[in-house]
Structure formats: C-alpha cells, structure tokens
Design goal:
Elements: H1 4-39, H2 44-48, E1 52-55, E2 64-69, E3 72-78, H3 81-88, H4 101-104, E4 110-114, E5 137-141, E6 146-149, E7 154-156, E8 168-170, E9 175-178
Antiparallel strand pairs: 1-9, 2-3, 3-4, 5-6, 6-7, 8-9
C-alpha cells in the first residue's frame, strides 16, 4: 500500500519551491538591470538645460534678442505691426513649407524661433541692427543664401523648411519658459 499524503505534500512543496525560485530570479534580474536602465536617464546638468526662462520686459518693439536653449540659439523678436501684417498677408500656396503665421506664434507681437538654418545648420543674420534680413525682412543665411520672412518661414534659397518654433509658454505677460 502506498502513502498518497506524502506525494501530495511533495508536489505542493515542489510547486512552492518553483514559484519561489522564479520570483527571486525575476526580482534579482530586475535589481541587476535597474542601474543600466537608470543610466539612460538624462543627467542633472542636462535637465538643468532642458528649459530656459526669459524676461521679455526689456525688449522693445522692433528689437530682437538671442538666448541659448539646449546649446542652440533661440531668436526672440518683438515684432512691429508692419512685421505682423507682412507675415499674415503671405499666400501659403507660394511657400515651400506652408505654415500660417498664426500657427507659429502664441502672441502675434512675439516671434520665438530656433535660430539654426534648416539647410546646413548655419546661424542666419538678422538679429542685430544693421544685419542683412534678406529680401523678406526676416533673416538671411549668408552661407548658402536662404531668405526667411518675418515669421521665420523659408521664402527663397536652398533651406527645405521654416525655422523651427521651440516649445515655449508664457508664464505672464513679459516672461516665457522655453522647453
């Protein structure tokens, strides 16, 4: 005669050991892999550069400033009513990268763009007084002759796309956070 109580106990014990071993194996693997996963997160110095706060109160109408964000120049221009009107009156059908001016700004008087030419990464001129602003009153890339309008849209030259608009938000009437 065989004793079935022993075999049932062995099976339960065996299942318990199997589940316990698998659970400890998964937990151990997770603990061993976590440092590698965590190393893919951005460092604190990179996170510090992720956003830039800018006070616009000193920028008068018609003026432009350049700030750095993520190692790139960001052009901020306080546009005049004529700049805004010129940008709004452009026929989108005539553009290589059609985009309405209203889609590129949060407030019409403030234009905020990443100041890197979309052709080969040069820095267009047009931020300082006396700089060439090209045929359309915006920016001109002297390296290869790209002309941008008062909304940062490509109008002439080899650049394939408009100057990009970075993510930004107004925290109040005169302050923005880029990034």
């Amino acid at each position: 005669m065989t004793d079935n109580s022993n075999t049932l106990g062995d099976g339960s014990r065996r299942d318990f050991l199997l589940v316990s071993t698998a659970t400890l194996g998964v937990a151990g693997t997770a603990l061993a892999v976590w440092p590698f996963i965590h190393s893919a997160n951005p460092a604190k110095d990179v996170l510090a550069l992720a956003s830039t706060e800018v006070d616009l109160s000193a920028v008068e109408e018609g003026m432009a400033i350049t700030v750095m964000w993520r190692g790139k120049p960001v052009f901020i221009r306080h546009r005049t009513p004529s700049d805004i009107q010129m940008a709004a009156e452009v026929e989108l059908a005539d553009m290589r990268d059609p985009q309405a001016d209203a889609d590129r700004v949060q407030k019409p008087e403030w234009l905020i763009l990443v100041g890197v030419c979309t052709h080969l990464g040069c820095i267009p001129s047009g931020q300082k007084l006396g700089d060439s602003r090209g045929e359309f009153g915006g920016w001109f890339c002297p390296c290869h002759g790209s002309h941008y309008d008062t909304s940062g849209r490509i109008r002439k030259g080899p650049a394939p796309f408009n100057l990009p608009v970075p993510p930004y938000a107004f925290t109040d009437d005169t302050n923005i956070v880029i990034g």
